[in-house]
Write a structure and sequence with these properties.
23 helices, binds pyridoxal-5'-phosphate, globular, Rossmann fold, six-stranded mixed beta sheet, alpha/beta
Length: about 500
């Protein structure tokens, strides 16, 4: 299978090349030239496998220049029980038609682990397949979640190194501890005296410094990124929608061949696009429900066909969805219109004016599959409280946005198709917002809050989060943005 580019359908590269390159030189994103398909028999066979087996089966159809043996090894290592627990991506019944797909049982308690645990294997193998022999150095500027998930994925993976920059004072106390206590011989972490944009600008400057990149190559090092638009981050996510469907069949909630809906709390549009790709491969999905917080640029886009980022930016209790440019939407536009020139025009207009309007036919095609809605912080908090009172289920603020939007969808349409709602983070990652929503005592420091969430819910906090209380900080330093390059050199070149 070959991969083409959303802005130039003349491009045709292998899967490993797409993963190694990350983003096409013209700024476009890689997508399969055509989608593989899974028959009902294959889905029935998949239902007999464990999560790693299911993921290997799904990814095998996309990553055709990887051997079955390779994918088997990578998925077993990435989704091992010591990383994701016994039940990798469990489906929990919330009501007659709503099923929560819990994607937060990985090492950092958020769904990004599904991609970032396996990406290091895909990336190093892609490098070898394309004759690249240097060690891969991953640079990350993070405002929290991505940095930790990338650190956990790349720590002690042979042939890789990772350096994470986070804004001093710009993360939650737990997020900071998650990063500064990171273990591994090949990791570097530092605070940067500045905000997220300063860290991000510093990383971009390092990537585009040709002389410096040449110097790194001489030392056997090659820079790369673990950015969420990399195909290697998207393809592992397709697998958990197949897995959820298999579980629903196994549990007797649906019969093989029945349709489901999928509802996803959305930011960069990667997670919900993975569901749309699963459908393109034969998974029976009738509606995709795109849930946003107050940064509801996608709600407006799906309702009107106009994407407009010129609007206020809100900091919400679901910070991982605080995004005004949803990069992976570009892939959906290409999938629905099939015209790279058209997509290129939209993206040019987005970068020039911050807005674009799709054609009527493209709008109609998207609306035929996608529904949408948004919930602000107060609505999400109300949902956390209500779902806990009615169902004894504790949702994190991102998941609560999705549940709220799903409930509104169901009330509006009367559609009672079984719906998989993606739960993207553990409630223990956001203890303050969760306690506030429950009208519980919010006094004390972060670890007191964790204990209280545990007491109220009867669940134990994820071991990795609770363990931070005793963990030793390794990376306590902070540097000015101008010193980021030197920090990297001192750490990795010596
Ligand atoms: C990243 C993230 C999201 C948004 O996912 P996209 O794939 O960017 O749409 C939602 N919830 C949580 C907890 C996240 O970390």
């Amino acid at each position: 299978m070959k991969y083409t580019c959303t802005r130039d359908s003349g491009v045709s590269v292998s899967a490993s090349k797409a993963i190694l390159t990350g983003i096409s030189p013209d700024g476009g994103l890689f997508l399969p030239e055509s989608f593989p398909s899974f028959s009902q028999e294959e889905i029935a066979d998949m239902a007999k496998l464990n999560y790693a087996g299911r993921a290997a089966m799904v990814m095998g159809k996309f990553l055709t220049d990887f051997s079955a043996e390779e994918l088997d090894r990578y998925t077993k290592a990435a989704y091992a029980e010591d990383r994701f627990g016994e039940n990798t991506a469990p489906v929990v019944k919330l009501s007659d038609s709503a099923y929560i797909l819990e994607l937060f049982h990985g090492p950092t308690s958020a769904f990004k682990d599904f991609a970032l645990q396996i990406l290091p294997y895909l990336l190093t193998a892609s490098a070898r397949k394309n004759g690249v022999n240097e060690d891969i150095v991953i640079l990350v500027a993070t405002s929290g979640d991505t940095g930790k998930a990338a650190l956990e994925g790349f720590a002690d993976v042979e042939g890789t190194k990772i350096c994470v920059f986070y804004p001093n004072g710009g993360t939650s106390p737990i997020q900071k501890l998650q990063m500064t206590t990171q273990k591994g011989e090949n990791v570097l972490v530092t605070a940067v005296d500045g905000n997220f944009d300063d860290a991000q600008t510093g990383v971009k400057a390092i990537f585009t410094d040709a002389d410096y990149n040449a110097e790194l190559l001489k030392s056997g090092l090659r820079l790369s990124s673990a950015n969420s638009i990399n195909w290697g981050r998207l393809v592992p996510q397709v697998a958990y929608y197949f897995s959820a469907y298999c579980d629903l069949v196994n549990q007797g909630s649906i019969s093989l061949g029945d349709s489901i809906n999928v509802c996803v709390p959305t930011g960069n549009f990667g997670n919900i696009l993975a569901a749309r790709i699963a459908q393109a491969c034969g998974l029976p999905v009738s509606r995709f429900i795109c849930a946003s917080n107050s940064n509801n640029v996608l709600t407006d886009f799906i309702s009107t066909g106009v994407y407009d980022r010129n609007r206020p930016f809100y900091l919400t209790t679901s910070p991982s969805m605080d995004i005004l440019i949803s990069s992976n939407l570009e892939r959906l536009l290409y999938m629905e219109c099939g015209d790279s020139d058209e997509v290129k025009d939209y993206m040019a207009s987005l970068s020039k004016d911050g807005r674009y309007q799709v054609s009527d036919s493209l709008k109609t095609a998207i609306q035929a599959q996608f529904d949408c809605g948004y919930a602000d912080d107060a609505m999400a908090a109300e949902t956390i409280k209500k779902v806990f009172a009615d169902k004894q289920y504790l949702a994190d603020p991102h998941t609560a946005v999705a549940i709220n939007v799903y409930d509104a969808y169901k009330a509006r349409t009367g559609d009672s198709t079984p719906t998989v709602i993606a739960s993207t983070a553990s409630p223990f990652k956001f203890p303050l917002s969760v306690l506030k929503a429950l009208d519980a005592d919010c006094s004390g420091e972060e670890f007191d809050l964790l204990d209280r969430v545990s007491k109220i819910s009867g669940l134990s906090a994820p071991a990795a989060l609770a363990g931070l209380r005793e963990a030793k900080e390794r990376f306590t330093g902070s540097i000015p943005p101008a010193n980021m390059r030197d920090f990297l050199s001192e750490g990795f070149i010596g």
